[in-house]
Amino acid sequence: MALSKTRLLWPAWLLSSIVIGLVYGGKLFTAEDRQVFMPGPLSNGHYQLTEKCELCHGDAFGGDKDSGEVLQAACIRCHGKERQKPFDSHPQEKFKDPRNADRLQKIDALRCVSCHTEHRPEITRKDGVTQPRDVCYHCHRDIAEDRPTHRAMPFDSCTDSGCHNFHDNRALYTAFLIKNSGKPDTREPATIPQREFASTLDEVADYPRDQYPLQALVAAQADAVGPLSATIVRDWAETAHARSGVNCTACHVLGNVPESLGAASAQWTDRPTQARCAVCHQHEVQRFGRSKHGLREAVGLPAMTPAQARLPMHDKLAHQALDCNSCHSGHRFDVRTAAVEACLGCHADEHSQAYKKSRHYGLWQAELAGTAEAGTGVSCATCHLPRISFDVSEWSSRIMVDHNQGANLSPNSKMIRSVCLQCHSLALSLDALADPALIQRNFDGPSAVQVTSMKMAVEDQQRRKQKRSDRE
Q1: For the chain, which ranges sit under pLDDT 50?
Q2: 348: helix, coil or strand?
């Protein structure tokens, strides 16, 4: 007796459902890409975390859907330090002030997702902003009454480059513009500060100075287990590690270094991990974990590779996992190579490829050749991994390289205080960063854009002075 068509379809439907359930269940409960479950792609700031939904959706995909507290806690956990004064001109505290309660009726500025909604690429603009460009107007619609210079300005131009940032406005507020007006384009001397790691080691309580006293070592003192190639010994002997007493076992022996080399042999590793670097360079490694280079590994995912980037990259190293050794090659740790050649080995975008045609590169070459003073050259790292004064403890700070390359990247005016003003005036910096074509040419030549914010700030100041004088 022939089976009916409907009776044949039921087993097929059941089998298909089981297969689909197994496929999707496997994606959900393993570390595979989970984009298939997302309502839309993640923004450039978060797309590396597609295998870690729980980083934001910690409790039942958002917990209380009305309050959104779980999502808010996730935002604060990663971005909270930057969302406080003086780094944020619109911190939560401002909107918790009862005098600003009426403004919350227009925009709920207490919640990050009010302006940064994920999974909505169709409305997501630069910096992950999903609010319309006229968002400032709702609270500052009367600004022209206090500042006549703002009359007739488009209501959606507040955040144009060189004007205002909602969060980090430290290089753009009025008093700062006035203070820096009338300065020459290039500062004298035009240099960046020198790193202070070696000079501050005596103040680092956790540094293993008993095992590795701060005294220079020579090639014959290398304490590696087994024979070493002459190249490795030479490379190490020429580094700051050797000059500071950091021997082979400091990096290649796990745990505490034993007294006898025989015991060390049992714990020797040929490939020290990033955690080993962090024993001495914990702040650099922590900041690296906050960057797009190190974010994935910092949250327990396989390390980022250039192939996963959304910027153009060279194919040669597309699948190389990014860690400390990616830029600081083993044994030599050449910071000069890390500052330029390591970057250009991966990045293939127009801005990066134009660097070696720029005047900045000429300054860098002069410094490497010894014909210019240290700190006068401008490398990729000078701008994207700037030397900043960093609080390494509750009682001390030091100049160190900020390995979070995205900290000052966007909006680009965040770069002004930490980078541009080391060598240039505020006016030149604002103009340069507001010119997209000049950025693509890696700042080779003058800007075609003239930002008027400094002129306007000075005019407003003069008008206020005249007004006070008239009253007197």
Answers
A1: 257-258, 261
A2: coil
